[in-house]
Amino acid sequence: MISQLTNKIIKYNNKKNLFAFLKVNFILTTIFLALFLLIITFENIFFFHKNIREYLYYSLISIVFIYLLLILIFAVKYLIRVFKFDLHQLAYEIGFFYDDIKDRIGNALQLYQKNPENSLINENLKLIINKFEKIEPANLIKFYQIQKEFYVFISVFFIAFILSFTSFQDGFKRIIHYSDKSYNIEKYKFVILKSDKILKYGENYQVILKVYDNLSHKYLTTFFKPVKFVVKKINQPDFVDYQIRNIKNDTLFFNLKNPDIDFTFFFEYNNVKSDKYDVKIVNEPLITKSVINIKPPAYTKISEYKEIDNGNITVPKGSKLTFDILASEQINNAFIKTPAKLFDMSVQGNKAIGNLNIYSDLIYSINLTSTYNIPNKPVEYKIKVLQDEPPTLNVILPKYTHNKISNNRLECLLDVSDDYGLSKLTINYKVTVSKYTSGQSNFSSIEIPINNDLNSQTINYIWNFSKLALVPGEEVTFYFEVFDNDAISGFKSTKSSLYTIKVPDIDEIFTENQQDLNQFQRKIENTIKEFNEIKEELNKIKKELKQDKPELTWQEKEKLQKTIEKYEKLQQKVQELKKEFSDIKNNSLENNLLSKETLEKYLELQELMKEFTSEEYRKVLERMQKSLENLNRQQVQNELKNFEFNEEMFKKSIERTLNLLKRIQIEQKFDEINKRIENLKEQLNNLNNNLENAANKDEILKQQKELQQQIKELNKQLDNLKNKMKEFNDLPNKELGELLDKNNPDDNENLISQAISSMQTGNSQQAKNSQSNLNNNLSNLQKGLSSLKQQMMQKNQQETVNKMLKIINNLIDISKDQEKLRNKTNNSRNDYTQFSNLAIEQYNIQENLNRTYNIMNELAQKSFMITPEVANLLGNALREMQNSINYLSNVNAYNSTLSQNQVIKNLNELAKLMSNTLKNMAQGQSGGAGSMSLMQQFQQMIQQQMQINQLTQQLASGQQLSQEQLQLARRLQQQQEIIRKSLEQMQQEAKSTGQSKKLPSNLDKLANEIQEVINDMRSNKFDDKLVQKQERILSRMLDATKSINDRDYEEKREKELSQQKYKGSQNKLKFYENNQPTNNNSIDNLIREGYNEEYLKLIQNYFKLINK
Known about the structure:
The protein has 1108 residues and is an alpha+beta fold. Helices cover 58% and strands 16% of the residues. Strands 2, 5, 6, 9, 10 and 11 form a 6-stranded mixed sheet that branches. Strands 23, 25, 26, 28, 29 and 30 form a 6-stranded mixed sheet that branches. Strand 16 (331-337) and strand 17 (342-344) form a beta hairpin. Helix 20 runs antiparallel to helix 21. The model is unreliable at 925-932, 1059-1099 and 1101-1108 (pLDDT under 50).
């Protein structure tokens, strides 16, 4: 019963609070909508600036926030009242509306709560409740209580709802999107009819626009203020405005002339600005790189290749071209245009790729359109179809059209090529000049192996023409011919020019060698002449420099500079002379013109010529150049003295070279005459053996006449020898004259004439007797010349030893005198009156050394025993003596003593150096046997390889070998194996004896090539390729002998220098210790060291001299 009463009171409370909340809500929402509409109305009227719209936007946000916050507060407030209320207070409030109830409900509820068990209270409460059942308190809350607020809210909401479907909403959107340019509507709107975002470089920029009034909703036709075009280039800091004057009705026109860089612009009218617009200045797309990948048809065997940045190309017919284009701009369209068709290209970024197949000459262009829709200006190119051309042939070796070869081998080096391929290469030859038969009329052909897979190749071929059996004086004419692989149109060929090979006779070989030497000698003489001219110029300049002025004048510097330049050019000529002499030496070796002794002297002379351009000369020139730059007269004069000294040494080196060369030529002339006589004797023996054959009479007569010419040439060379020897008084000119008187050359000419006459009359026996007598005469002459040469060399050696002993003796005496003077100088430091006498004494010692120098210089003109080291030490001693004289003249005892110590040191070293040189002469060079052994082994292998090569050529027919030929092939294989093993054994022996450095570094490769030949022999591959391999092996062996010879000489020189400089005291001649001469026990040491008897006697006499 009490619960029914409570429920009615609660329903009343809920309805009451709901209506209160609705009332507040209607009021707040009405206020919010009113403010919202007011703000939007203002925006629609005034079109506020975006900054104000931003403020309005945040104002709306704030209003919404406050509105929602208040709604939330009131909602919470009334919600609390729903759940938390005073039941008694509500009972009194409800009773207030009913007169018959009043406060009875409230009082009854209070009494009931205090004493719910009281029956009287319960009865009273029951009566009240029964009466309360007839009423509904919730009905006391009526709609009219909030209808005013509701109607106001509905009215405002309806207005807002209606306006949301009109342009009124634009104001709301502009506020909400205040930062969005698309909603930024000013009072005026600039309507652009024409305005490009992209402009091609070099064109004018045109804009067309109208101005729209957003208030009147009309385009303006009358402007009270100027409409401005405001622009700023990207390289300018500020905007620049232009007034738009071209107005037609409601349309405005403006041209910006030739903008050259990107810019930004906007329009302005009556303080209203349009949006900013960016305009990009773009270039037309240019082709910055063009790569055409050319894929020729397969039959040409040409690999794919590329043409870069070259549109005009020539390609084989049927080629597929792939164009890879790189443009200066991004592109969106590209195609290749030909007269007949357009070929689309695939595009990606600034690249375009397209293809063309070429079958005929074609004109084309590449058309591009950039992403800005800017086209390029296409250029027309031409594609030419390449025709099949003949092959090309370039002959590198032989270098010369006319060749003289005496070893039956010609190295050929050819560059051959063809556009599509090669099929064959041949060497075509015929004997054009024959000594005993008529020349051949037709060419024979030898096919040279080539690689048919290569279109261009270098062919190294050694032509062995020993099968032709050429004799001296005969000539072969030949040419090369190469064929392409054009099987359709026919093989096209290219021929080289004609070449000749002549087998020179001994006379030609010696004549050419003599011409080379004579020319070389003339060049040396010219060099000496130029040197003397330079020296005269220097002397004039030296006189002109003797002035008191501290600095050089410009004219003086120029004169001296030009003279030094002449000297440098002279040095360059000397360098060329060194190379020329090396070529002469190599040619002499190839033609076997040098004996072992002469070859050693050639090498000695070649070593001596290195001193022409020593490091000392270079330093002197550098110091001279620096002194000229400083323009210091005194410094230049000092350096000029050093320069003159080195210049004089340079001159003496050249003069010495010339004199030694003349002496070497005399020895070589002895060798030449010996070879000529040996050759004549061999021909005479062959001729005598053929005299009985009457059928060969004409041929014998021809050979006799040739012999007659050779004997005349021999006599001519004998006269040449006499003339060369007459230049030197120390040579056995008298003995040579006596020999030639005893073996009169004219007798030999008479004998050969008699033999010819006898042969012409048919008296072969008489001819044979004359030829035999001639042979005997030649033998006697040969023996006499050999003996004379031996005597000449022994005499030269004897004289060299005597002079060297005399020089050593003089050096010891001078050294003793210098040491005495040094002691006097030390003792006279405080006695100034003695210094002039000491200077005179030093001058006398210097004169003695100069006389010794003259003896040494005289010896140097005829012997290689005076080395550059000897000359340097002597020069240093003379310089220090001059310094000592200067110091003594200036009363400077201390510095004079230092110079004298240096003099003594140089003289002692010089004496020891020359004594070691003398000892080496006596003992001979150790280690030579080992080197000769290597040379002998190589020469033996070369002879064996030549025999194998000749026999291999007989088997290289390309046909199947017979049983007999197979047996020969097995023997050749065994012999080739023996050579390979000999080569390996020689390498091992050289390593074990420490001589491996003498061997060429490529012997392992040579051994591998020999093994390759052996493998071919095992497989019976006897063909031209095998012959070529063997020829290359032989060529490498010949090169190896030259290498061993040169290395042996270098080692010999190094050993001599090492012995001279660093030999231990137990192996040196002890001249004196503590100023005491050596005792005779040193002679016993020399005997134990191995001096031969002849030299020992000389050295014993020397010790007797120095002990007196």
